[in-house]
């Protein structure tokens, strides 16, 4: 990988390009840069979520996720390089299984609402989906390993599940359960019928 930053205001990007870890420069509009930016934004949203009161186990998991996202972003900035390990994807699969086992079955679609921490998890989930789409788009043009795409896919699922967990944790007193979408079917009393 390239040199670590020793200063931030390098002015090398004034021409509309950015440097990659292999020393090459690409336009700031390049698909690789867009994917890197979406991953960076996702990591920043997780930082905001981590500023909220959270259950200890959720906090520990999200701190690990932030480090893995940094690896993922580093891998995207290094064409052909590998930083994100397959074990990171498995870690998310394990967390998904563990947290899903604690939740009741969904009765209907849920809204991205409830406690502040749950709402922030939903925002991060949508950014994870955008980052995943950016990586898929990049992979259609250039070689990209499967782990970054898989990681973002699992992470968006996990953030959905964690939003449900955080509503139940109710650490701000504004949650307690999922906030269900009020569909026409439910309004007619259709319940689970199709």
UniProtKB/TrEMBL annotation:
Region annotated Disordered, chain positions: 1-24
E.C. number(s) listed in UniProt: 2.5.1.-
Catalytic activity of the protein: 2 cob(II)alamin + AH2 + 2 ATP = 2 adenosylcob(III)alamin + 2 triphosphate + A + 2 H(+)
Gene Ontology MF terms: ATP binding; corrinoid adenosyltransferase activity
Keyword Transferase: yes
Keyword match Nucleus: no
Entry keywords, A to Z: ATP-binding, Cobalamin biosynthesis, Nucleotide-binding, Transferase
Enzyme class, first EC level, given as a word: transferase
Protein name per its UniProtKB record: Cobalamin adenosyltransferase
Organism of origin: Inhella crocodyli
């Amino acid at each position: 990988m390239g040199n670590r930053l020793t200063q931030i205001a390098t002015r090398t990007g004034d021409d509309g390009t950015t440097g990659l870890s292999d020393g090459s420069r690409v336009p700031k509009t390049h698909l690789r840069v867009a994917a890197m930016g979406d991953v960076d934004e996702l990591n920043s949203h997780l930082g905001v979520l981590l500023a909220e009161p959270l259950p200890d186990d959720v906090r520990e998991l999200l701190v690990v996720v932030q480090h893995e996202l940094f690896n993922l972003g580093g891998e995207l900035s290094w064409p052909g390089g590998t930083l994100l390990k397959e074990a990171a994807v498995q870690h998310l699969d394990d967390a998904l299984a563990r947290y899903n086992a604690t939740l009741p079955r969904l009765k209907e679609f849920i809204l991205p609402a409830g406690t502040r921490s749950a709402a922030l998890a939903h925002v991060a989930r949508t950014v994870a989906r955008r980052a995943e789409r950016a990586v898929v788009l990049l992979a259609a043009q250039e070689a990209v390993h499967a782990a970054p795409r898989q990681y973002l896919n699992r992470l968006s699922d996990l953030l959905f599940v964690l939003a449900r967990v955080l509503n139940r944790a109710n650490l701000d007193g504004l949650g307690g359960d999922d906030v269900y979408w009020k569909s026409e079917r439910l309004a007619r009393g259709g319940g689970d019928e199709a």
